[in-house]
């Protein structure tokens, strides 16, 4: 049912640009889907809850790199919502950049909409990036036709 609501559990735990870039990513999904997807901010019991954490488990030795992850909320075998959990800092204790937040939000929103897989094409937003400071995070990403077609199947 549209609009799909999203909200923030602890907005003040991250720099303000985090929230702005995540909101920009929701707007990007709306625009690129020609408004077949619609989102509305609702901090009280949203469909998609966004949380911030500073305790990043990323490990430089193993080249593990985590910006965010999405998990379902299930109660009595019923999906009650989705949670997108963002880490605010990288393994070097530096805040993620605006582009990293935006690109990651585009990716995690697709997970929150129900697509739990990944793509082998590096151009697609659903490509799984595991490298520390990958080149794709330097540039601002755009949704591809394949990204849109995948989500609009749902």
Task: Write a structural description.
The protein has helices at about 15-30, 100-110, 145-150, and strands at about 5-10, 40, 50-55, 70-75, 80-85. By secondary structure, it is α/β, with parallel strands linked by helices. It has a 5-stranded mixed β-sheet with strand order 2-1-3-5-4, with helices on one face. The longest helix has 17 residues, at about 15-30. It is globular. The chain starts with a strand and ends with a helix.
Largest sheet: 5 strands, mixed
Provide the β-strand percentage band.
Answer: 15-25%
User: Strand order across the biggest sheet?
Assistant: 2-1-3-5-4
The number of distinct helices, counting runs of at least 4 residues, comes to 3
Mean pLDDT across the residues is: 85
Q: Order of helices and strands, N to C?
A: EHEEEEHH
Question: What is the first-to-last residue Cα distance?
Answer: 12 Å
Radius of gyration: 15 Å
Global outline: globular
How many beta-strand segments? 5
- Helix and strand content put the structural class at alpha/beta
Helix content: 25-40%
Unreliable spans: none
List the SSEs and their pairings:
Layout: E1 4-8, H1 16-32, E2 39-41, E3 48-53, E4 68-75, E5 78-87, H2 98-112, H3 145-152
Helix pairs in contact: 1-2
Give a brief rundown of this model.
26% of the residues lie in helices and 21% in strands. The protein has helices at 16-32, 98-112, 145-152; strands at 4-8, 39-41, 48-53, 68-75, 78-87.
Keyword list:
154 residues, alpha/beta, five-stranded mixed beta sheet, 3 helices
């Amino acid at each position: 049912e549209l609009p799909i609501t999203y909200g923030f559990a602890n907005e003040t735990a991250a720099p303000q640009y985090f929230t702005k870039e995540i909101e920009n990513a929701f707007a990007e999904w709306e625009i690129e889907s020609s408004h077949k997807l619609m989102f509305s901010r609702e901090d009280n019991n949203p469909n998609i809850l966004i949380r911030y954490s500073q305790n990043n488990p990323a490990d430089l030795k193993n080249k593990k790199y985590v910006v965010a992850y999405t998990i379902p909320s299930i109660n009595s075998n019923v999906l009650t919502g989705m949670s997108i959990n963002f880490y605010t800092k990288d393994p070097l204790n530096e805040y993620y950049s605006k582009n990293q937040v935006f690109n990651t939000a585009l990716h995690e929103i697709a997970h929150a909409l129900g697509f739990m897989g990944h793509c082998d094409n590096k151009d697609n937003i659903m490509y799984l990036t595991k490298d520390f400071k990958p080149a794709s995070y330097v540039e601002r990403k755009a949704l591809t036709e394949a990204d849109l077609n995948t989500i609009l199947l749902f």
